[in-house]
Amino acid sequence: MTSFDLNADLGEGIGDDAAMMELVSSASIACGGHAGDDLSMRVALRAAREAGVRVGAHPGFEDRENFGRLRLALPAEELDRQVRTQVATLCNFAAEEGLLVRYVKLHGALANMAAEDGAVAAVAFAAISGIVDGLSVLAIDNSAQVAMADAMGFPVIREAYADRAYLPNGLLVPRSAEGAVLHDAGLIAERAVRLAEAGELVAIDGTVIASEARSLCIHGDNAEAVAIARAVRDALEGQGIAIRPAD
Questions:
Q1: pLDDT per residue over 144-196, tens digit each?
Q2: Rounded to an integer, what distance in angstroms lies between the CA atom of residue 45 and that of residue 49?
Q3: Which of 29, 138, 145 is nearest to 89 (CA)?
Q4: Which of 80, 93, 133, 176 lies at a C-alpha separation of 20 to 30 Å from 2?
Q5: pTM of this prediction?
C-alpha cells in the first residue's frame, strides 16, 4: 500500500496541538527559538508519545517578536549556536521522556534562506551533526536544503506544503504576497492527493512542478489547521494511501 507522511509544526503556543496530534504522523516541535520553552517542549513530546507520532526538532531564528519569520544575516558561529542549542535541548528532553528525535526541520525565514542558499543550509545542518545518531533532515523538495543535506550525508525526507502557494521554481510564495497561504480545505485536499499519486504540485501561475515529496506539512498556526488536516487525511485514506512517517 502506498503511504504518505503528514507533518505539522507544533508546540508553538498557537492552535490546537491535541487535535493535530490525532491527525498527523510526524510532529515538528518548536524548541525555544521562534517559539516554545521547556514546558511546551515536554508537553508536546508527551502528547506525541501518547499519539504514537514521530518527533522532529523545529529550530528557527531566536526572534520571538517576529515568530522567526524575519530574515536575519547572522554570523555562521551564531547560527550554529542557535540551531545546535535548540536541537540539543529538545533531544535531551526527548531522551528523558523515552523518545528519540528522528529528524530536523528548519523553521520560517531560516528554512526559506536555506532553501535558496546552500551555504546557509550547510551551516544549519553542520550544527546538528553528532547530536543524535541517524537524524534525518526534513527539507522542502527542489531546494538547496535537499542538495546540501544529501551532500553532507544526512538521510533526506523531501517535503511539500499543503497550505502554501508555490512559485514556478518549486519554492514557496513569500508570505507577504497575496495568496501565499491557502485556506480552502477541499482544494488543499485535492492538491495533496495529486501530489501523493502523481508527484505533482501546481504553482501559483499554473506551472506544474514535479515533486518527490513524501511528507506534507500542514501549518499548526493556520486558523483552519485542524479542518485542513482532517480533510487531507480523509482524502488520502479515501484513495487507499496510508498515513505514516516517511522513511
A1: 999 999 999 999 999 999 899 999 999 999 999 999 999 999 999 999 999 99
A2: 6
A3: 29
A4: 133
A5: 0.95
SS3 call for 16: coil
Q: For residues 69 and 11, what is the distance between their CA atoms, to the nearest angstrom?
A: 16
pLDDT tens figures, 39-87: 999 999 999 999 999 999 999 999 999 999 999 999 999 999 999 999 9
DSSP state of 111: H
- The CA distance from 6 to 26, in Å, is 6
**Residue 115 sits in a domain of what CATH number?**
3.20.20.370
Structural domains in the chain (count): 1
Q: Which domain holds residue 26?
A: 3-243
